[in-house]
Amino acid sequence: MALTKTSFMRGMQCPKMLWLDKHKPSLKVIPPEIQARLDAGNDFGDLAMGMFGPYEEMTVYRPGTTIPDKKAMLANTQNAMERGVGVICEAAFSNYNNYCAVDILRKTETGYDFYEVKNSPAVSEQFIKDAGFQYYILTRCKVKIGKVFIVIHGPDEEKPFVPVDVTAQAKGYYNWINDHIWDLNRRQKEPDEIVIELGEQCLNPYECWYYGYCHGGELPPRKED
């Protein structure tokens, strides 16, 4: 497999981060508070699957692991689309081995809309780029996409799922994705560790999990309560 949505976004933040993910993943350190947010996001995403009623989930794990079986998920997705399933969750697509699993793919009269779910009170540009990557893959897989939404966490816990239409912005990233995806594929496969000067990318837009490795054991700065 080449790049996923997550690896592409990490590579755009810092190519060295992408290289380390592939060649030295044991060096990563995920702070407990970050892991807690990731877990909460996964829980929110699981709940959001039912926001439109009945659905079929495509997730399959390799035997005895929690690693997605992408090949099986791709086959499941193709089968679900051929059967005309109205709402497909974790719908998997691959183009030249670049891969994404769409949180919610919803059938329309003319094609599909898709929904990227984020456990956040507001839409960020990173979220739109995430959706843009998925639009890029789906379009290259000849899936006709109408609208693109980011689902955020609203203030009402009784109805927490708030879809925000980001169609124009997400589709606008198509060329940007295409300009970078092939170079990142090449760079992650380089035999020697990529050398990148330390800088803003170490913490922005997200704290790098290899911060301590790259900074000689130094801990990243923490905000005071």
Overview of the molecule:
- With 225 residues, the chain is α/β, with parallel strands linked by helices.
- It has a single domain (5-213), classed as Lambda Exonuclease, Chain A, CATH 3.90.320.
- 39% of the residues lie in helices and 18% in strands.
- Strands 1-2-3-4-5-6 form a 6-stranded mixed β-sheet.
- The model has no long low-confidence stretch (mean pLDDT 95).
CATH architecture: Alpha-Beta Complex
Q: How does the helix and strand content classify structurally? A: alpha/beta
Helical segment tally?
8
Radius of gyration from CA coordinates: 18 Å
How much β-strand is present in the residues?
15-25%
Look at the structure and give the CATH class. Alpha Beta
Would you list the SSEs in sequence order as H and E? Answer: HHHEHEEEHEEHHH
Write the CATH fold name: Lambda Exonuclease, Chain A
Q: What's the overall average pLDDT, rounded?
A: 95
Q: How many discrete domains?
A: 1
Give the CA-CA distance, first to last residue. Answer: 41 Å
Please state the oligomeric state of the protein chains shown: single chain
Poorly predicted residue ranges: none
Tell me, what's the shape?
globular
Q: Biggest sheet, open or closed, and with what strands and sense?
A: 6 strands, mixed
- Helix proportion of residues, in percent? 25-40%
Which short descriptors sum up this protein?
225 residues, alpha/beta, Lambda Exonuclease, Chain A, six-stranded mixed beta sheet, 8 helices, globular
Map the helices and strands.
Elements: H1 5-13, H2 15-23, H3 32-48, E1 56-57, H4 70-82, E2 87-95, E3 98-107, E4 112-117, H5 125-140, E5 145-153, E6 161-165, H6 167-171, H7 174-188, H8 211-214
Parallel strand pairs: 1-2, 4-5
Antiparallel strand pairs: 2-3, 3-4, 5-6
Helix pairs in contact: 1-2, 1-5
